[in-house]
Amino acid sequence: MWARVARLGRWALVGGHRAFATEVCRGGGRVTAEVIAHLERLALVDFGSREAVARLEKAIAFAERLHAVDTERVEPLESVLEDRCLYLRPDNVVEGNCVEEILQNSHRVVEEYFVAPPGNLSLPEME
Amino acid sequence: MAALMLRFCCAGRRWTLSCVDGAFRQGRGPLTGSMSSRIRGQRSVAQHSFTTAQKLKKGEREWAAVVGLEIHAQISSNSKLFSGSQVHFAAPPNSLVSFFDASLPGTLPVLNRRCVEAAVMTGLALNCHINKKSLFDRKHYFYADLPAGYQITQQRLPIAVNGSLAYGVCIRSQHSQVANKTVRIKQIQLEQDSGKSLHDDLRAQTLIDLNRAGVGLLEVVLEPDMSCGEEAAMAVRELQLILQALGTSQANMADYEIQRQINELESGGEILNETRSFDYKLGCTVSMRDKEGKQDYRFMPEPNLPPLLLFDSESLPAGADPQQVINIDQLREHLPELPSQTREKLMLQYGLRPEYSFTLLNEVGLLEFFHNVMKDTKAKPHTVTNWVLNRFLGSLKQHSLAVSESPVTPSALAELLDLLDGRAISSSAAKQVFQLLWRSPGKTPAQIVSEQKLELLQDREALEQLCRATLEGHAHVVMDLKKGNPRAINKLIGLVCKAALNRADPTLIKEILERQLSS
Fold this sequence. Notes:
The complex is a heterodimer of chains A (127) and B (519). Chain A is mainly α. Chain A has helices spanning 2-8, 20-26, 33-43, 50-63, 99-104; strands at 88-89, 109-110, 113-116. Chain A is built from five helices and three strands, in the order ααααβαββ. Chain A has a two-stranded antiparallel sheet with strand order 2-3. The longest helix of chain A is centred in the middle third of the chain and has 14 residues, at 50-63. Chain A is flat. In chain B, the strands form five sheets. A six-stranded mixed beta sheet of chain B has the order 1-3-13-10-9-5. A three-stranded antiparallel beta sheet of chain B has the order 2-14-15, with no helix packed on it. Chain B has a three-stranded antiparallel beta sheet with strand order 8-7-16, with no helix packed on it. In chain B, helix 12 crosses helix 15 (506-518). Chain B contains 15 helices and 17 strands. Chain B is elongated, with a radius of gyration of 30 Å. The model of chain B is unreliable at 1-58 and 268-292 (pLDDT under 50). Chain A: InterPro entries: Asp/Glu-ADT_sf_sub_c, GatC.
């Protein structure tokens, strides 16, 4: 499965991170509870129910049909903007300086700082 | 994979708020599976994570320690990497934040030309291959000071790859000679900085300031070619000097911070092959194995940015708007003088030894001081170097002063060296004058010399008498000398010098004594 994925290029591995397709293919179409938990943690989503996971599996299976396309010796499309020019902005200060507007959306504000709950992890005990 | 993550911040006021991000932060830091957090501020440095393989039990297979580094340098620019808000240290919180920086919906990144130029110049200075096409990606992780939930970086195809950084290491065994070493540069990439978090443990909340969010960073990844902390420190120091010479980053970081962290590494002892995180507060490394599983950044191409295309003189499209194209060759032509080139020039121009040129460049302002003294004095480079690197630098260190705070000006030192060179005073008198100059900066060397009556005795007859008197008064030393002890003559010279209140030239004394003894 890994070799097949590599050749097709469409599901090219980026930075060594696993494509979901391979996980599903390995498991014979099922997304394991481990993968769900991993995804939930990474993307901060809640799959909630078995139905949601089933829908995910169906979506992946649907996309699998792309494997039928022969992309041998075809360069992957990285961006639909690949023919566009990347505009370069001059190094001038033209925005900012709008504290009130920026803070407007925040639920809690303390002395012009946004307030967030403490960290993603609990800190280890330190003296 | 590599490791230490060090951070250069730009100059400005010291940041006094308590600002520790905490020892462990999921998703922070440049490496997959690693966690690091930062202490941001003036002269602050990132916490870092590193991977080393170290010696196992004695008798087992020998492991060699390898150290790799990832260095983030804040780009010196007026505005941020993808937005037009200002880059400035110590501004009121959230005052330098645009809608894009706050990640409000509907905003798009617009690339800053200056940041691209900075990256290309740095790549050229580090002998990298500049990728004429490079791509931007999104690196996802959740953290309060990253409003978008992702950082725009260049993971797949960075702007520069495969370079090298040449640096010098002191060979302790050989009288501080310098050995030249090289470390390979894996890549240089452009990426966004995140905001700042301040932790209020008392109220269990985190305060977020996004002034820094979106500022351009250069990430320089060094291959694990360095075999110890000292080499890593020297490599980083050289990189710092290069970035400062290029003007691409102010690269200010307290040297003691590097050294301290390197020392921690070196005294690590038996380090297991694992990823560890350096806890700044604890001052030691802590294993990360028991932390949550692998961090997956879910890299994806940045859909809002086309590939970044660079040109050289050959490929430059005709009639292109010069504001919209970047010519690598043009940037190469205008590269400022790099530290290694400055050292070469010093060695050629003044015949300095390599280790002296290293020291001259290592200390802020010292090279300029040296040049100013050379300009004003007739003394030989060898003498000037000796005085600047030993006496002057030594005094600075003793009083913990920077070159800019020196009580002795270059012209004062030049004048002193002229007096010495013209044999108006002896070298021991010169040392005395220097010390007095240090304490009374208003006076000139000439003033001090006349006040303290340190001029060399011009009266030959008086000197001859002094010599004769010394010989008579110290018969046992004379005997010693006649017996064949070569050091006895130095003792006699010293005695005459003292008697002459440091106003006699030792070489002349020696000549007179020898003549008197042989007669």
